[in-house]
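Researcher: Let's do a round of design. I'm pasting the structure tokens now; please hold your answer until I've finished.
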């Protein structure tokens, strides 16, 4: 339970890298569809890709890399097994 880990102050998943490519304007009220995938799962980090579509038009693509840290020491830590397992549902790549 990621929310429980974060509330307990044991684990955080801050961004360490973020790329955004805007391809077409998006306006308030637009209906958007998101395609979400996990591109890479490492020992301590993972990278997600999110693409925003309006109808069939790709409006934006975001790539975000998170690292797992222990809140008490602010040092990298291994991704918990439950998080790794949840991320694999968003990827076809081997872990």
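Researcher: That's everything. Go ahead.
Model: Designed sequence:
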């Amino acid at each position: 339970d990621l929310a429980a880990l974060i509330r307990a102050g044991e684990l955080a998943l801050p961004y360490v890298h973020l790329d955004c490519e805007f391809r077409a304007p998006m306006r308030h009220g637009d209906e958007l569809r998101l395609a979400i995938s996990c591109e890479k799962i490492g020992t301590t980090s993972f990278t997600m890709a999110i693409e925003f579509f309006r109808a069939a038009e790709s409006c934006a693509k975001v790539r975000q890399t998170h690292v797992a840290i222990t809140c008490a020491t602010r040092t990298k830590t291994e991704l918990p097994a439950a998080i790794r397992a949840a991320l694999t549902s968003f990827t076809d790549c081997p872990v």
